[in-house]
Amino acid sequence: MRAEAVPSPREPIFLGRETYRRRRLIDAMRLLPVVGLLLFLAPLLGGGVTGYGTASLGVFLFAAWFGLIVAAAVLVRILSRAPGGVAFDPLEPDAAPPGDEAESGGA
Known about the structure:
By secondary structure, this protein is mostly helical.
């Protein structure tokens, strides 16, 4: 007869709420350049068939540019409020929170 293996306690499958939220904000930051590219190429996709003039398309491009700047600033501000600042990622194994240079051997 074979003995049944007792399942070992595992770590929870789900991440903590703050870690999950932080990772999604980082994903949003990574997606901003793609959104910007699509917004900047949108006037070209019309092929001149749209009823908009050059001036209105120029206003659209500057509004999209300004919107991307504001979105990036808001995301960075939200990320900077987290413990460890913007550069700290709690899921990276070799990442130490800022201020722990003595433990990591930094100069």
